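Worked problem 6 (solution included).
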Amino acid sequence: MSESLNLTYKAAGVDVEAGDDASRRAANLARTTYRPEITELGGVAFFDGRFQKYKEPLLLGGTDGVGTKLKIAFETGKHDTVGIDLVAMSVNDLARRGGEPLVFLPYFATSDLNPDVAEQVAKGIAEGCRQANCSIVGGETAELPGFYQPGEYDLAGSAFGVVERSRVITGQAIEAGDVILGLASSGLHSNGYSLARKALLAEFALEQYVPQLKATLGEAMLVPTRIYVKSVLAALEAGATLHGLAHITGGGFRKLEKIIPAHLQAEIDFGTWTRPALFQLIQDTANIDEAEMRGTFNLGIGFAAVVPASEAETTKRIFEAAGETVYPIGTITERT
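Solution. The predicted structure is:
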C-alpha cells in the first residue's frame, strides 16, 4: 500500500513533459502549413469559413492511416516520410470528388513517447500539407503505456475541404467511350504492405541494396505516396471535363470499378505503362498471381481520371503541365 502512494503518472508510463515538448515542436511545424485563411488566436488556429470564391460550397472530409508501412519506418529508423503518406491518403480522397483540402488533423499514438521521433513524423505531416496546400489546425499526441510494442506508434488523420456543388465529381457522368488516364504513382504508396512485407522480407533485408530497384529495399518501400491534389485542381481550373476520378489504393484497380455506373465497365490495358521494378520484384519473389497483383497494388498508377475521348489528349497535356506522368490506360465500355 505504501508503494502505491508514491506512484506518479510518469512512473505509470506517461511523461507529460515529453508530451508537452512533442506538442510544441508539432505546433511550430504546423504554422509552416498555414493558408491565408488561418488566424491564430490564443495559440489556437481558426479558419475563415466564408469561402469567398465559392458560390455553393459543400464541405467534405476523409479519414485514413498509413497501415503496416509504418513497420518499415520502425525497422529502418526513418520516420520523416510516413507523415506525407498520412496526409496523402486523405487529401487524395478529397481530390477524387473535386474537393480542395483546407485543413488537416493528425493523431499520433505511442506507448513510449520520444519527442525526436514524433518531431520527425510531424515534419512529414507538415510537408504533406504544404504539398496539398492544407493547414494543420489541431491534432493529438497520445502516450498509451503498454498499448503498442516498444518503439512503435500508430498514425491517423482527417482532412476536411470544400467543393463547389456544381463541380462535385461522383462518377455518374461516366459513359461508354470515355478514356481512362492513369497518373503515375511514386511506388507502393501506402497499400498492400502486408503482402509486400510477407513477400520480400523473407528473401531480402531492408538495408540490402537491390540492383533492380537502384536503392535499398527499405528506401524503395518508404518512398512517400504522391499527392495529386494540385494537379486535379489545376485540371478543373483549366476547364477539363472529369467524368470520374479514382484514387488507386487498397484493392488496387477495383477502386476504378467502384466509381463506374453499374451498366459500364473499365477495360484496362496493363501493357500501356511500364510497371515499376518494385512490383515486379514482389510478384517474382513470391510467385504471386497476376490477378492478385492487380487487386492489391497500384502497379505504377496511383490515380485515374475518366474523361471524354474528345478531350483525352488535351486533359493529358494539362495533367502533364501540372507535373504528372500520364498514360492512356483504357476505355469505358458497356458491361456484357
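Discussion: The domain at 179-334 is CATH 3.90.650.10 (Phosphoribosyl-aminoimidazole Synthetase; Chain A, domain 2).
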